[in-house]
Specification:
With about 1050 residues, the protein is α/β, with parallel strands linked by helices. The protein is globular and about 80 Å long.
Length: about 1050
């Protein structure tokens, strides 16, 4: 038993929604912590606002609270549950900051709750820039020259001492939020003011720039007896100046001498001792000058971090699980490392005999106005990891796992040699594509020294990339008949994919695959074992390599393979990983051996104890087929990982792979516009009038026939990519000419846009004969905003019973006609009591976890069992569950990272994550969802109204509600005159173009507390952009829809009137 016998119950604080800088790595660490503590008989209480995670499943902890992570809500939970201790180190910066808030308000003292895992003093010393600097000086470690500032004037004094460029780092923020590098006084003022505003302690560090220095990280674990182990060293390929979350990183470090490694190792342990971390994992970051070897400590995280997840997956060492056990009193020598089959104790430092590469995934295509230059503020939305026997193999596997339409070092289009300036600029400036421009430079015969001078990247990495380009150039002179076994094997050992080789020698990918198999060249599978094969690994955690001995040892059991979702991105996030994990756990219970294939290091699905066998591999046809050929699974599930595995379905089926569940043909009917139209007509359903156009002329003709407004989008997209609502010929012509590349192969789809319609999502399970409706979700925002960005409510809060009955009939018809086996999601729009079918997705959707938490039935789990052959009757699932409470899902948007981007929502998805609020009424649930999403609703103050003409009648009722609550109204002339005509008191304020003082001045002066701004048409949107931008920059509550404004009015009433109830008790009211 734990040495600390006093601890009988522990409260774990989760990380909340997925945001840039804090992704699903904390879902993974939180799940491990829950398992570790419950193994020891400790009662676990979990609080997290994110419904999309496995962590908030009701069976993950003794009590699960899906509540906002805010000290006021957590106080209510502490009063109810009376935990002995609180563990704040598993939920990222959110959990640390919330614990400090609880401590500041004396709540932990009041209820006698002990902080475990890290003390308040150690959190403060690590996170407070000034205290950290002093602590490092005391132990003789050097940090960059830096000064602390608490306002802009003080910051400016310090900047003058340092000069330019200068680094601005806010205290206690996440993913470097609010930080950056300033090269001039204008940039400095913008970044410094924003950093001071975003820091919870209004504190920034003004620091000398070490841009261009090499960056390293050490992942360290320490226990209370001062046993310290280094889990992993990580080297950033990108030099200092790029946030480590946005940098390509490699483990173990490749360019350190043994002496340098020992210096960093010793310094890391010194840092942990000084900060006082004695029960868990920490991450220490260093900068080394390439000129003179000077070493600086940059920062340390006194908690499990993003790098911990990477180090865990890279080595197989379960950092979060071990850290949780250390927090309750164990020491490293008392614990065993599971991945070695408990042969060696956790006090052995992991040792690896392979190379791991992590490459971040970005979403700049979603935010066209955003600056894609990478700085110290994190901007990536996900990451991919790959393992190989050498750097080149690992690196090329990671590139093709990114899913950005590259299968290696893609050629970048440079028009001619005159573009030399462009290429040099791309090399100087760190962007997501810089690695591809480096390859292009070697194609253009740049020397290694030239590229090094422009990028400051270590020559060792440049040599590796130059060598790959040399191989590519040699290959382009060859024909397929020139390839022999030796030359092909050499290319495969360097990580070249069949598709890349085939493109170089102008043949088909299947020809290379055929030749490779003819030569008997196939990958072998090695095991991740944390001990460099010194002891035999019992855990089947594998990666492919073109090496000698295969260690996979497949069984003859009945197996099902699940293809994961790859790297997180906007439109395909953690919700799909949740579904994959449930499929694996459910099928294991049913007696199948489960095989997981995925390449995302942040997720629970890539934890080695979720499936019987884990293959950490890119999700390409070549990589997946190699695993199928050795494992020979009974069936493969492609419907749970989003679009990633779905794209492989047809090719896998053509290669005689058994796709279980809904057939690829049925999925194609739902995604192909013409086939879908035939299906709708056959069933006698309605859909908005639509057309297909392959050029601008066809589009203009279709618009003339259908009428405006129109929703336009490319065919086959995920997350509403490049979708727009157009209202005029001019808008449509611009879209066709600029926004997308249109052709016969990729036409544009045009749909009549249903103004003011209510959008509805329905999730269900079908076994081919019967249908179980999971939930009917009513969207809060009206149609036209992507379903992933819209809030939604279970049960619906305005729809009539007759509409609900008709919806149930229509989805049942669709599921049975498509012969769906497993999960299906359908979207409808309701306008004037007419039901229009928008789309059908016969696969897992992003709403499946939210519905599961709302109704207490695990849809993904049941869906997987149905796919494996059981019926809904066998599972006793026949009756729809309608809860007595309300559940509201709300999207979380990343606009704080992109202050230059308009916050106006539309048909293209922009949210990175979601939260859930649960309450007795819709208003209470919506209030909690807003608070969980970081929206602090005002109780009183000034409301600014600016609405389009067609919303003016609707704004009257909202205005009266706001006045009754105690708000004062302000509006520009048109809206103000309209309200005064209706006898609603409203103050007038100038538009920006009418001269100062105007509305933006009021926002900047803190005189506006809530903004309701609806707009349409390119001109109007452009004119009102400054209002939305200042609202975002000044944290003013903003809604851009009338339905959102109505929901705000209901929610404001619950600011001081809410409860906290665990999800298990909620579900008990259903059963």
């Amino acid at each position: 038993m734990p040495i600390n016998k006093k601890i009988k119950s522990v409260l774990i604080i989760g990380a909340g929604p997925i945001v840039i800088g804090q992704a699903c790595e904390f879902d993974y660490s939180g799940v491990q912590a829950c398992k570790a503590l419950r193994e020891e008989g400790i009662r676990v209480i979990l609080v997290n606002s994110n419904p999309a995670t496995i962590m908030t499943d009701p069976d993950m902890a003794d009590k699960v609270y899906i509540e906002p992570i805010h000290w006021r809500n957590i106080e209510k939970i502490i009063i109810k549950e009376r935990p002995d201790a609180i563990l704040p180190t598993m939920g990222g910066q959110t959990a640390l900051n919330t614990t400090l808030d609880l401590n500041r308000h004396k709540i932990l003292d009041k209820y006698n709750v002990e902080i475990i895992g890290a003390s308040v003093d150690s959190i403060d010393m690590a996170e407070d820039r000034e205290l950290f600097k002093i602590a490092m000086a005391e132990i003789g470690l050097e940090t960059a020259t830096a000064y602390i500032a608490h306002d802009y004037e003080e910051a400016l004094i310090h900047q003058k001492k340092i000069g330019f460029p200068v680094l601005i780092r806010p205290s206690f923020t996440l993913g470097g939020s609010g930080g950056g590098i300033a090269y001039n006084i204008q940039d400095f003022e913008t970044i410094a003011r924003r950093g001071i505003d975003l820091s919870p302690t209004s504190e920034v560090l003004i620091e000398e720039s070490v841009i261009g220095w090499k960056e390293f990280e050490m992942e360290v674990v320490r226990d209370k007896n001062d046993n310290c182990i280094i889990i992993c060293s990580i080297e950033n390929i990108d030099p200092m100046g790029v946030h480590t979350g946005d940098s390509i990183t490699v483990a173990p470090a490749q360019t350190l001498t043994d002496k340098e490694y020992q210096i960093l190792r010793n310094a890391s342990i010194q840092v942990l001792r000084k900060i006082g971390v004695d029960t868990g994992g920490s991450n220490v970051q260093f900068a080394i000058s390439p000129k003179d070897g000077r070493v600086l400590v940059i920062e340390m995280n006194p908690r499990v971090s993003r790098s911990s997840a990477l180090a865990s997956k890279a080595t197989g060492f379960p950092i979060a699980k071990i850290a949780a056990k250390l927090a309750i009193g164990y020491t490293l020598d008392e614990l065993k490392n599971e991945i070695t089959g408990n042969v060696i104790p956790a006090s052995f430092e992991p040792s690896i005999d392979y190379v791991v590469t992590k490459i971040p995934r970005f979403a700049f295509e979603k935010f066209k106005e955003a600056d894609n230059k990478l700085t110290t503020q994190m901007k990536s939305v996900g990451e991919v990891m790959a393992i190989g026997r050498n750097f080149q193999e690992s690196f090329q596997k990671a590139l093709r796992g990114l899913e950005v339409d590259i299968d290696g070092l893609k050629e970048m289009s440079l028009l001619d040699k005159e573009n030399d300036d462009l290429l040099r600029n791309e090399l100087r400036s760190p962007t997501p594509d810089r690695i591809l421009y480096m390859a292009e430079a070697f194609r253009q015969n740049y020397s290694l020294l030239e590229v090094q001078n422009l990028t400051n990247i270590d020559p060792w990495f440049l040599f590796q990339i130059e060598d790959l380009i040399r191989e590519e150039i040699n290959l382009k002179d060859k024909k397929i008949s020139d390839l022999n076994k030796t030359s092909l094997m050499k290319l495969k050992k360097k990580g070249f994919s069949d598709s890349f080789i085939s493109r170089c020698i102008s043949c088909d990918e299947k020809d290379i695959r055929g030749l490779r198999l003819q030569f008997d060249i196939a990958p072998v599978f090695k095991r991740v074992d944390a001990c460099a094969a010194e002891f035999e690994a019992t855990t089947a955690y594998m990666y492919s390599s073109y090496d000698e001995e295969c260690e996979s040892n497949p069984t003859n059991n009945k197996k099902i393979m699940i293809l994961g979702g790859g790297p997180n991105r906007i439109g395909q996030g953690i919700e799909f990983d949740y579904c994959c994990v449930h499929a694996s756990l459910a099928l294991r219970e049913e007696g199948y051996e489960t095989i997981m294939v995925n390449c995302n290091p942040e997720t629970v699905s890539t934890d080695f104890d979720i499936s019987d066998r884990l293959y950490f591999e890119p999700l390409t046809f070549e990589d997946v087929m190699s695993i199928i050929e050795i494992e020979k699974p009974h069936g493969v599930i492609v419907q749970y990982g989003g679009q990633t595995p779905l794209k492989l379905a047809k090719e896998l089926k053509a290669n005689k792979v058994n796709i279980i569940g809904t057939s690829p043909e049925a999925i194609d009917v739902a995604e192909d516009r013409e086939k879908f139209k035939d299906l709708v007509e056959k069933l006698g359903l309605k859909q908005p009038t639509n057309a297909i156009a392959s050029n601008t002329g066809q589009a203009m003709q279709a618009a003339n026939e259908i009428g405006y407004p129109l929703v336009v989008r490319p065919s086959y997209v995920l997350g509403g990519r490049a979708m727009e609502i157009v209202t005029t010929d001019e808008d449509l012509r611009r879209y066709m000419d600029e926004a997308v590349s249109v052709s016969n192969d990729s036409p544009v789809l045009l749909d009549r846009f249903l103004n003011d319609a209510i959008e509805v999502d329905i999730d269900l399970i079908c076994d081919g004969k019967d249908v179980f409706i999971g939930a009917i979700m009513e969207h809060i925002e009206e149609a036209g905003i992507h379903s992933g960005d819209s809030g939604c409510s279970i049960p619906p809060y305005t729809l009539s019973d007759s509409i609900l009955m008709r919806l149930r009939e229509q989805v049942t018809q669709l599921a049975l006609e498509l012969n769906v086996i497993g999960l299906m999601n359908t979207q409808f729009a309701i306008k004037e009591n007419e039901i229009f079918l928008l789309e059908v997705n016969p696969r897992a959707s992003r709403t499946a976890p939210f519905v599961s938490k709302a109704i207490g039935v695990q849809l993904a789990k049941i869906g997987a069992i149905v796919m494996a052959g059981k019926s809904l009757k066998d599972l006793k699932l026949t009756k729809e569950v309608i809860p007595s409470y309300f559940s509201v899902k709300e999207a979380v948007l990343p606009f704080s990272k992109f202050p230059e981007v308009d916050v106006l929502l539309g048909p293209e998805m922009k949210s990175t994550g979601e939260v859930m609020g649960i309450g007795k009424s819709f208003g209470e649930a919506y209030f909690k969802a807003q608070r969980a999403a970081g929206v602090i609703l005002p109780k009183a103050g000034n409301v600014f109204l600016s609405v389009r003409d067609k919303d003016k009648s609707a704004i009257c009722g909202i205005s009266k509600d706001l006045i009754d609550i105690g708000f004062n109204l302000y509006a520009t002339r048109g809206t103000q005159e309209y309200l005064e005509e209706k006898n609603i008191k409203c103050n007038r304020v100038n538009k920006v173009k009418e001269g100062q003082p105007h509305i933006v001045d009021m926002i900047k002066n803190g005189e506006v507390h809530l903004i309701i701004n609806t707009t349409e048409g390119a001109r109007s949107i452009k004119d009102s952009f400054s209002i939305r931008k200042e609202a975002n920059n000044n944290n003013v509550c903003l809604t851009t829809t009338i339905s959102g404004a109505k929901a705000f009015c209901k929610a404001i009433l619950f600011i001081d009137n809410f409860d906290a109830t665990d999800i298990q008790s909620r579900h008990d009211t259903i059963n």
